[in-house]
Amino acid sequence: MSENIKIFIGFLVPAASIVSFFFSVFAENYILGMFLAIFGGISWLIFVLVAKFYWPKVTGNIIIVFGALLSLAVFLDSGLEQNMFGGLNFKPEGIAYSSILFFFSILLGVLFKNISLGVSDSTPQKSYREPSASANDEMVFDLKEADNNVDPLTNNSNEESDYLSSLEEYYPGYEEYFREYYDE
Q1: How many Å apart are CA 83 and CA 6, to the nearest integer?
Q2: Nearest-angstrom CA–CA distance, 34 and 29
Q3: What pLDDT, on the 0 to 100 scale, is given for residue 145?
Q4: Element (H, E) at 150
Q5: Less crowded by CB within 10 Å, the N or C end of the chain?
Q6: Which stretches within the chain are classed as H helix?
Q7: What's this model's pTM, rounded to 2 decimal places?
């Protein structure tokens, strides 16, 4: 089987499931819609495994779509209730169930999308970037520059000595207090 035929049949299964899902939703048969959403996702994954072709980049998207269809069917079945006046009442339990299903389907779809991005053909990719200066060279330069700012007698940098002298202006007796503390 050629790759184009495999891909066509592979996308025919989800398309038929989606169309039949919407027919079941319009017929207000939400349980059938749940089964069709589950069947569509599982049948597509089984076809991919049986046909033995690589995981396409759309695997995550298909999982998200069928998870959204499943959560929509759960929401319509258990999240909405029609009252006797013809209005709709929202049920928090059904909304919670459908949002949890939707969250986990998005999570699973994103994980599959990241996995399928790592899978590629066997040809290596070439990088055309120019080599840049390494970070170690910049750090050595910064350390040399920092060594020039250190006062060898007090082992303080120029900024620290300026700070300590400003403390004496604002807090008279600052050094004597701490000298007494350290002498004890």
Answers
A1: 48
A2: 9
A3: 53
A4: strand 150-151
A5: C
A6: 3-26, 30-51, 59-74, 92-118, 135-148, 158-170, 174-183
A7: 0.58
CA 111 to each of CA 106, 143, 148, 171, 182: distance values in angstroms, whole numbers, following the listed order: 9, 42, 51, 59, 58
The confidence score (pLDDT) of residue 141 equals 47
CA angle 20, 25, 31 (to 5 degrees): 90
pLDDT at 161: 59
Please report, as a single letter, which amino acid is at residue 22.
F
Domain spans of the chain, in order of start: 3-118, 135-183
pLDDT, averaged per 10 consecutive residues of the chain (184 residues), comes to: 76 89 91 91 85 74 91 90 87 92 91 64 52 50 52 54 62 66 62
Please give the C-alpha separations between residue 76 and each of 16, 19, 55, 59, 172, in angstroms, as whole numbers. 21, 17, 32, 26, 75
The answer to whether the beta carbons of residues 15 and 23 sit under 8 Å apart is no
Q: For residue 57, how far is the Cα from the chain centroid?
A: 16
Q: Which tokens sit at 139?
A: 């750090």
The confidence score (pLDDT) of residue 87 equals 87
